[in-house]
Design goal:
The chain has about 700 residues and is an alpha/beta fold. It is globular and about 75 Å long. Belongs to the glycosyl hydrolase 42 family.
Length: about 700
C-alpha cells in the first residue's frame, strides 16, 4: 500500500474537474449482481438493453468478497461481474468496496469501530462503522483500493473509481482515544502553540486554559456538551472538532486515492449527500476529480431544494458538471414513511439534475435486494424482475430520451450571474451559538432564500465564501455568521462595480475562531451595509412581528425568530417593524454604494429578521430586476427554466413543470425541443402538463 498521509488542516487550492469519458449522459446505477445467481444476470442485461442502460456502478459493498481474510484476496466474482458488464457493452464506475467493514476486520482489530458522541464503544454492525483514525482501517482500506486499481486499471470498461460510500452517514465523527490523539496532532498543526490555541478558544473563560496538549479532550456528551451536539460550553473546540473530523475523513479518502493513483489515472470520486451538516464538502472538493451525490429529497413538493443541491454540487468544482450517483426510481427505505414517486416524477427529477449540471443519471438500485434493510428500497427491477411495471416503463422511456439527446449536454455549463454563498463554518457556528435564538437553523434559512431566487427564475451558483465573485451581479449571503479573511472586502468589490449584495440577521457576529468581533454588529459588514444593530430580540416561531415595506403596493409580511433593531448609518430604510417596543424601527435597509471610478452604484440589502417568503421574494425580485435577471416564467408557480451552454456554445433551455395542473405560457424563445422535435416560436402560447419537460435547443 502507499504510505500513510499526514493530517492536514485548512482548505487547499481549488483543482479543476476531470470527468469520466462518456459518449452521452451516463445512465444506469448501482448494480449488485453478487447478490444473485447468474441466471438472474441474463435477465438483468436483457432488461438493461430495453431501458438503454449504459453505465453500472459495481462493487460498492464488495469488501467481504474480495478480501475474506487479511492475507486472502479473491477477485473471482468481481472479475466475472466486471467482464460481464464489458461483454454487454456497459461502462463501469468501479468501487473500492470500502463503504462498509468486513466482519473479520472488526474482530481482528477492535480499534476500527467507532466511539459515538455519548462515549459508547460500538461493536461490529451496520455500515458507517469505521473510525477514520484507525491505522488498521486506513491501511486495509488503502490496501484493497490499491489491489482493485492494480487489477482493473487497464480494463476497457472501467471509466471511473468510486471510493467509500456516503461518508459520515450516521454523523461522521468518532470520539475514541485514537481520534483524541489525532485531534491533538491536528491542533498543533493549526495553532503551533498552546498560547495561540488558548487565545483562539478564549480559554480563560471557566478556567479552561490548557498547559499540555494531552489535556485536550474531544468535545462530546462526556466533556463540553451539556444537552446534545449543538449545545457546547466552548464553541471554539467544537468548531475545530467539526473541521478536524472533515479533514480526518479526507485523509482516509486521499489514502485510497493515492493507492489508486499508483496504478491508474482515471477520475476518482465519492458520493456526497447534498447539504450534509457534519462534513464540509468545500474542504473536500479539491481532492475530488469530479463531484457526485445521492439525491433522496425528504419531500416531493420542494423542487427548489433539489435544484439548489444540484447547484451546490456543481459549485464544488467551479461550475463543472457533476454525477448524479444515486436516486430511487420508486421509493426509499430509510424513513418511517416512504411514499412512492408519482407518475412522471422520476423523469422530471432526472431532467432537473441534467438541467443543473449532471452528466449522469444513475439509480440505486438496478435490481431490488432480496434481504436486509434495503430490500424494500425501490429499484429499476423489482423482486419479480417484471418489465411491465410502471417504474420500469418510466426508466425505459427516460433512457430513450437520454439516448435521443446524446452528447449535446455533456460538459455544458450554467451561465449564472447570481451567487448564493454557503459556509459550513457559519452553519456549525450559528447552530451552536447560545443565543439569541437556538431555533434558527442554517439550512432551512438557506433554502428559503434559495427558494426566492428559484421562484424568480434566476440561474444560481451555490458557492463557498472563498469563491471568485467577480462574475456575479447579485451575491446573497444569508446567516453569514462568521466572516473570515477578505470576504467583507470582496463583497464590497461586488457592490463597488454596481452589483447587489444581500445579507441579514445574525451575520458578521464572529471571526474564524468563533469569537465575537469587538465592534458593532454586523462587524466587518457594518460599513458595507451602512447599518448597525442596536439590539437583538428573539421569540418562539409562533410569534410574528409585522414588517411593512415602503412604497405603493409594497407588502407587509411577518417577521419571525430574530428581530434586529437596526440603526442606519448611511443606509435607507426599506421596511419597519409594526409591533412591540421597537414598532416603527428599521427592519430592512438598503445601502447605496458609489460605483468605483464613476461606474454604476451598488446596493447592499440587510434583512434584520426572518421574513416570510413573500417578503424575501420582494427583496430578491427587486435585486434581480435591477440587473435584468428575472426569469421569463417568474410569475408562473412551479415552472422552472434552467439554461445550459454547451461546449459548442449553443444555449439549451430546460423547461420543467413541477406543478400539478397544466399551464399555458408564451414561449420565451425560438428553438427546437430535442425530445419531440417540436418547434417553438417566440411568443406563441405553449401548454405544459404536470411533470412535463422540454429540452429547447435555441
Amino acid at each position: 500500500m502507499t504510505d500513510a498521509q499526514p493530517l492536514r488542516t485548512g482548505v487547499p487550492e481549488r483543482t479543476p474537474a476531470r470527468l469520466p469519458r462518456t459518449d452521452s449522459i451516463a445512465y444506469g446505477g448501482d448494480y449488485n449482481p453478487e447478490q444473485w445467481g447468474k441466471d438472474v444476470w441474463d435477465a438483468d442485461y436483457a432488461a438493461f438493453d430495453a431501458a438503454r442502460i449504459t453505465t453500472v456502478t459495481l462493487g460498492v459493498f464488495s469488501w467481504s468478497l474480495t478480501q475474506p481474510a487479511e492475507e486472502t484476496f479473491d477477485f473471482t466474482v468481481l472479475d466475472e461481474i466486471v467482464q460481464r458488464a464489458a461483454d454487454e457493452g456497459r461502462q463501469v464506475c468501479l468501487a473500492t468496496g470500502t463503504g462498509a467493514l468486513s466482519p473479520w476486520i472488526a474482530h481482528a482489530y477492535p480499534e476500527v469501530t467507532r466511539v459515538d458522541f455519548e462515549g459508547r464503544k460500538h461493536r461490529y454492525g451496520q455500515r458507517h462503522n469505521a473510525c477514520w483514525s484507525s491505522p488498521a482501517f486506513r491501511r486495509l482500506a488503502a490496501g484493497i483500493a490499491g489491489r482493485i486499481a492494480e487489477r482493473y486499471a487497464d480494463h476497457p470498461a472501467v471509466i471511473a473509481w468510486h471510493i467509500g460510500n456516503e461518508y459520515g452517514g450516521d454523523g461522521g465523527a468518532c470520539y475514541c482515544d485514537l481520534c483524541a490523539a489525532e485531534f491533538r496532532v491536528w491542533l498543533r498543526a493549526r495553532y503551533g502553540t498552546l498560547d495561540a490555541l488558548n487565545e483562539a478558544w478564549n480559554a480563560t473563560f471557566w478556567s479552561h486554559r490548557f498547559t499540555d496538549w494531552d489535556e485536550i479532550e474531544p468535545p462530546s456528551a462526556l466533556t463540553e456538551h451539556w444537552k446534545g451536539r449543538g449545545y457546547t460550553a466552548f464553541q471554539g473546540i467544537t468548531l475545530d472538532y467539526y473541521r478536524f473530523s472533515t479533514d480526518n475523513a479526507i485523509r482516509q479518502f486521499c489514502e485510497e486515492k493515492a493507492a489508486i493513483r499508483a496504478h491508474s489515472d482515471l477520475p476518482v470520486t465519492t458520493n456526497f449527500m447534498g447539504f450534509f451538516q457534519p462534513l464540509d464538502y468545500h474542504r473536500w472538493a479539491p481532492h475530488l476529480d469530479f463531484a457526485s451525490w445521492d439525491n433522496y429529497p425528504p419531500r416531493s413538493d420542494e423542487p427548489w431544494r433539489t435544484a439548489l443541491t444540484h447547484d451546490l454540487m456543481r459549485g464544488l468544482k467551479d461550475g463543472a458538471p457533476f454525477w448524479l450517483m444515486e436516486q430511487t426510481p420508486t421509493v426509499t427505505a430509510s424513513r418511517d414513511v416512504n411514499p412512492v414517486r408519482r407518475p412522471g416524477i422520476v423523469r422530471l427529477w432526472s431532467w432537473q439534475a441534467v438541467a443543473h449540471g449532471a452528466d449522469s443519471v444513475l439509480f440505486f438500485q438496478m435490481r431490488a435486494s432480496r434481504g436486509a434493510c434495503e430490500m424494500t428500497h425501490g429499484a429499476v427491477l423489482d423482486h419479480s424482475g417484471r418489465l411491465d411495471t410502471r417504474a420500469f416503463r418510466e426508466v425505459a422511456g427516460l433512457g430513450a430520451e437520454l439516448s435521443r439527446v446524446g452528447d449535446v449536454l455533456l460538459g455544458a455549463r450554467t451561465p449564472a450571474r447570481t451567487a448564493l454563498l454557503v459556509d459550513w463554518d457559519s452553519w456549525w457556528a450559528v447552530e451552536m451559538a447560545d443565543g439569541p435564538n437556538r431555533l434558527v437553523r442554517y439550512l432551512p434559512t438557506l433554502l428559503e432564500w434559495g427558494r426566492a431566487f428559484w421562484d424568480a427564475g434566476a440561474q444560481v451558483d451555490v458557492v463557498p465564501v472563498t469563491a471568485d465573485l467577480s462574475g456575479y451581479d447579485v451575491v446573497a449571503a444569508p446567516l453569514l455568521h462568521m466572516v473570515k479573511g477578505d470576504l467583507a472586502s470582496r463583497l464590497g468589490e461586488v457592490a463597488g462595480r454596481g452589483g447587489t449584495v444581500l445579507t441579514g440577521y445574525l451575520s458578521g457576529r464572529v471571526d474564524e475562531d468563533d469569537r465575537r468581533f469587538l465592534a458593532d454588529v454586523p462587524g466587518p459588514l457594518a460599513g458595507l451595509a451602512g447599518v448597525r444593530v442596536a439590539e437583538t430580540d428573539a421569540a418562539e416561531p409562533a410569534v410574528a412581528n409585522p414588517v411593512a415595506f415602503a412604497g405603493a403596493g409594497a407588502p407587509t409580511v411577518d417577521g419571525r425568530m430574530v428581530f434586529e433593531i437596526l440603526v442606519p448609518e448611511g443606509a435607507e430604510v426599506m421596511a419597519r417593524y409594526g409591533a412591540d417596543f421597537y414598532a416603527g424601527e428599521p427592519a430592512v435597509t438598503r445601502n447605496v454604494v458609489p460605483g468605483a471610478d464613476g461606474g454604476p452604484e451598488g446596493h447592499v440589502w440587510y434583512l434584520g429578521t426572518e421574513l416570510a417568503q413573500a417578503g424575501l421574494a420582494h427583496v430578491v425580485r427587486t435585486a434581480l430586476g435591477r440587473h435584468d435577471l428575472l426569469g421569463p416564467y417568474a410569475d408562473v408557480p412551479g415552472l422552472e427554466l434552467a439554461t445550459r451552454v454547451t461546449t459548442a456554445g449553443d444555449r439549451v433551455d430546460l423547461v420543467l413543470h413541477h406543478g400539478t395542473e397544466p399551464v399555458t405560457v408564451p414561449a420565451h424563445a425560438e428553438g427546437v425541443d430535442l425530445l419531440t422535435d417540436a418547434r417553438w416560436t417566440r411568443g406563441e402560447p405553449i401548454t405544459l402538463g404536470p411533470a412535463e419537460v422540454v429540452v429547447l435547443r435555441r
